[in-house]
Design goal:
This protein has 16 helices and 16 strands. The protein is an alpha/beta fold. Strands 5, 6, 7, 8, 9, 10, 11, 12 and 13 form a nine-stranded parallel beta sheet that branches. Strand 11, helix 9 and strand 12 form a beta-alpha-beta unit. The chain binds guanine (GUN) and zinc ion. Zinc ion binds next to strand 5.
Length: about 450
């Protein structure tokens, strides 16, 4: 044990580990499975990853090794779309998207002008995501800059890599939630200066969705993105049929919903488009051509009755799209990426497109990282990557234990974890090489 107050410089974790060297949707050899692996970490990065018996002898004898003999270790989950400010309205009964926004969401979000409320919600959010094994998320805040300061400050305290931004909205929402094109621009620039690239924090220009921004504000959003290379764009697209029709009526000069964003320079690498359920083939091709990405949020899509995302259409085509998984709380019903994989499997199964466990875990880890263009830093256990990973417990519940015992391969074990697992199956979450959550010590 190290002395109180001093952390060992090098730490190591041993156990059954799975990872990816690429995209298993296109490369069948991209899956990495090491039955007895050692992950060595120093200064927040992975410095060695491979079979225990090949690496152990190369380490100084006093390195502390944490051994998880019955676990499955993978990269920390990447939640590609969430609204931390909607934790308090998760599970609101009875409405589709536009009514849900009016009756629940816009009321709740008005509370986030209060920094104290934003701070306590951010702290609760981080407790929850780390309990669920999520180490990176692309997060909507509210229109209030305070809500962004609270989120990034908490992330900096926890050491996590987060992508977040102030919501831009200058129409079709209650007055207290509206900014203007000019104010939204200035406040976003202030936040970019305070947070973008500071430690592990990254900024996303965040127009909520086309209906709540005027053309002037979308133009300002495009200008912000162009002026600050390396920032992200985070918005929603084609989630709901009524929403899509509304966008067509608000922007009659544009070819469709996606074209609104395209016109204002909001597509490209680093653009995260939540949902994308009701897209045309031409829109999907344009998303691929621009290098934009879709955040598939199955628990939300089912809960709001929005529709079924076409994973087959996104992946089995001439130009496959970047796709990751999002919880989309509070329209989504779980912060667990395991639960999200479960629902993603079922949505694709309705299209007779069963997604393998290897692909599901990819979507929840390296796939999300690749969607963000961050797969050289997070999302896999590659040497040089940031040392964020999760230790999953196949024996977490009696049901899981009896089923896991019968698994005859790593893939079967992973599938069982994704279908039966949730927060209880997360034994530990490591952020930058250090335990940020340990279930049995919590
Ligand atoms: N579209 C615009 N805003 C929202 C939101 O807060 N949640 C979801 N699911 N869709 C949206
Ligand atoms: Zn959303």
């Amino acid at each position: 044990m190290s002395a109180v107050g001093t952390e060992p410089k090098v730490t190591a974790v041993r156990g059954h580990a799975v990872s990816y060297s690429g995209d298993p949707f296109v490369d069948p050899d991209a899956f990495v499975d090491i039955a007895d692996a050692l992950i060595v970490c120093a200064d927040g990065l992975i410095t060695r990853f491979g079979p225990y018996d090949q690496i152990r002898g190369t380490l100084p004898p006093d390195v502390e090794i944490r051994h998880y003999p019955d676990a499955l270790i993978c990269a920390g989950f990447v939640d590609l779309h969430a609204h931390y400010v909607q934790m308090g309205i998760i599970g609101a009964f009875g409405s589709e998207l536009l009514e849900w926004l009016t009756h629940h969401t816009f009321r709740e979000e008005q509370r986030f002008g209060d920094l104290a409320h934003a701070r306590s919600t951010a702290a609760a959010y981080f407790d929850e995501i780390l309990r669920n094994g999520t180490t990176t998320a692309a997060v909507f805040c509210t229109v209030h800059p305070e809500s962004v300061d609270a989120l990034f400050a908490e992330s900096a305290r926890r050491g996590t890599r987060m992508i977040a931004g102030k919501v831009l909205m200058d129409r079709n929402a209650p007055d207290p939630l509206l900014d203007t094109a000019a104010r939204g621009y200035e406040e976003s620039e202030g936040l970019i200066a305070r947070w973008h690239g500071v430690g592990r924090q990254l900024y996303a220009v965040t127009p909520r969705f086309a209906p709540t921004s005027t053309p002037a504000q979308l133009e300002a959003a495009g200008a912000l993105r162009a002026r600050h290379p390396g920032t992200f764009v985070h918005t929603h697209v084609s989630e709901n049929v009524a929403e899509t029709a509304w966008v067509r009526s608000l922007f009659p000069d544009r070819a469709g919903y996606l074209d609104v964003y395209d016109h204002f320079g909001l597509l490209g690498p680093g653009t995260i488009l939540a949902h994308g359920i009701h897209l045309t083939d031409a829109e999907r091709a344009r998303i691929a051509a621009t290098g934009s990405a879709i955040a598939h949020c199955p628990t939300s899509n089912l809960f709001l009755g929005s529709g079924l995302f076409g994973m087959r259409d996104a992946k089995e085509c001439a130009a496959p799209l970047h796709v990751g998984l999002g919880t989309d709380i509070g329209a989504g019903t779980s912060l667990s990426m395991l639960a999200t994989m479960n629902e993603a499997y079922k949505v694709a199964a309705l299209d007779s497109y069963p997604v393998s466990a290897v692909r599901l875990f990819y979507l929840a880890t390296r796939g999300g990282a690749a969607a963000l263009g961050l797969d050289d830093r997070i999302g896999s256990l590659m040497v040089g990557n940031e040392a964020d990973f999760v230790v999953l417990d196949p024996n977490a519940t009696p049901m899981l234990a009896q089923r896991s015992r019968r698994a005859e391969s790593t893939e079967e074990l992973m599938f069982v974890m994704s279908i039966l697992g949730d927060d209880r199956a997360v034994a530990a979450t490591y952020v930058a090489g250090r335990p940020a959550y340990e279930r049995d010590r919590a």
